Amino acid sequence: MKKEIAVSLLGAALTAGVIATGSYGLSKDNIAIYEQAVALEQENGNFGFEGFAITDYPVAFYDGDHDYVIRWKDNGYLIERRRPVINSIAATAYSVDDHYEVLSPTVEKMSSFLGMMSGGSWEYEREDCVATLWHEAFHCWQLTNYRGPIEALWQGKAAENLIVEHADTNRQAVSLFEQQAALLENAVKTDDIDKIREYIAEYKRLDGERRALLSIDVTALEEYYTRVEGSARYIEASVYYRLAPESFKVNYIDNIGEYGEGSNKYYRAGMAQCMILDALNPQWKKDYDFSQPLIHLIYTELNIPQEKNF
């Protein structure tokens, strides 16, 4: 469990509060989470992704009965209550009418759910909430601006079960992925460019072996998770670092090399690739359009020959 901390954001303050309608019963904790997410934007901008702003997308908190929709407007925010768009205890980016919104359970709803699932008390902490809002807002931005290349990767595939039934049951592929993930973790943890080049060259060699073991559908879905979800995890991690730097490493860096069934391992791999790109070329995000694998950008920066797999 991540340690709960008190967060102070110096130099970043909202210029206005609720500008209409009131909270309709949305708790102060949820409002504070939204305000902190916006304060991070005011202090840190878009973390390098040009045109991305969390305030461009409404955030709807679901309490089990209603959505409480917060919209940023004129240096303040408006809160409205409506019937829930979906009845789900999960944070997601969702198309509502002609735009995307961040849908999230309230902190109370999520804490209750996690407590029930864990059989005890599990508080959904503020830094987790704020980082999750940024993660999902990034998906809103991706889908609003880069839907074409993202859908080209997705292609209506069966998602999680395709990974579990094929990638996770192939022992050789699992072993190769574990080796690759360890190389990514090592590359993230060093500032030595020669070592990064060594790790990534070996990563590429193993990647060729692994791809030969899996179908095109599986590797394309893996790439979707790595590229799209991995970059969103990178945004989440960037936010979390600013909120809880003392626990950032254990929660986001030290587990890059871990293997687990399902898609989450690709989130970590994509996040790691974004971090490696930061070390090689901090400007890589400025015009990134999600049409290329992140690892290909790394190969280019390191002058490592590559084949076009996607």
Describe this structure in words.
The protein has 2 domains: 28-145, no CATH class; 153-301, no CATH class. 53% of the residues lie in helices and 11% in strands. It has helices at residues 28-44, 107-118, 126-145, 147-154, 160-167, 171-188, 193-211, 216-243, 245-253, 264-280, 294-301; strands spanning 18-20, 59-62, 67-73, 76-82, 92-96, 99-105. A hairpin with a 4-residue loop joins strand 2 (59-62) and strand 3. Helix 3 (126-145) crosses helix 8, helix 8 (216-243) packs across helix 10 and helix 10 packs parallel to helix 11. The relative contact order is 0.12. Residues 1-21 have low confidence and may be disordered.
Instruction: Name the poorly predicted regions.
Output: 1-21
**Any idea what the radius of gyration is?**
20 Å
Strand order of the largest sheet: 1-4-3-2-6-5
Number of strands: 6
Q: What's the structural domain tally?
A: 2
Proportion of strand residues? 5-15%
Q: Give the termini separation.
A: 38 Å
What series of H and E elements makes up the topology? EHEEEEEHHHHHHHHHH
What is shown here, in short?
With 310 residues, this protein is of the alpha/beta class. Helices cover 53% and strands 11% of the residues.
Keywords:
310 residues; disordered N terminus; six-stranded mixed beta sheet; globular; alpha/beta; single chain
Write the layout of secondary structure elements.
Blueprint: E1 18-20, H1 28-44, E2 59-62, E3 67-73, E4 76-82, E5 92-96, E6 99-105, H2 107-118, H3 126-145, H4 147-154, H5 160-167, H6 171-188, H7 193-211, H8 216-243, H9 245-253, H10 264-280, H11 294-301
Parallel strand pairs: 1-4, 2-6
Antiparallel strand pairs: 2-3, 3-4, 5-6
Helix pairs in contact: 1-3, 3-8, 5-8, 6-7, 6-10, 8-9, 8-10, 10-11
